[in-house]
Amino acid sequence: MHQDDETWDSVFEMFFEEERQHDRDLWDLIKAESLRTGRAALGPREVVEAAVVGRVDRMLVTRDARIAGKRCRECENLLPDVQDKCSICGSDSLFTVDLVNELVELMLLSNAEPEFTDPIGGLSKSGDVAALLRY
What is the pTM assigned to this prediction? Predict the structure, then answer.
């Protein structure tokens, strides 16, 4: 291996380790806020409820998460789990969506920050998505 290659490998490894630590720190902050002030949302249902009203500041989601959701054709309500009827208008005209994509779009509309991470044990147990809330 060439000296330059070894140097670049070391730099990349330090960068990725710092990124993983940043993700773990954000997860620790979200957990602490959920216990302390309630300024956190854990799991798809809570994150969707906070995101649709613009309360999310930062969202952490497992990079390879596949979370199904539904959207109402009548009122466009986003539903975090598989339901037969819209919880807002009662319509049964629902279609399946990728909840992660829908949440990222909501984050962008409200200037929130979506962050993707490698699997973290507690985050995975919480449904692969959590958020730090603005208020």
Answer: 0.86
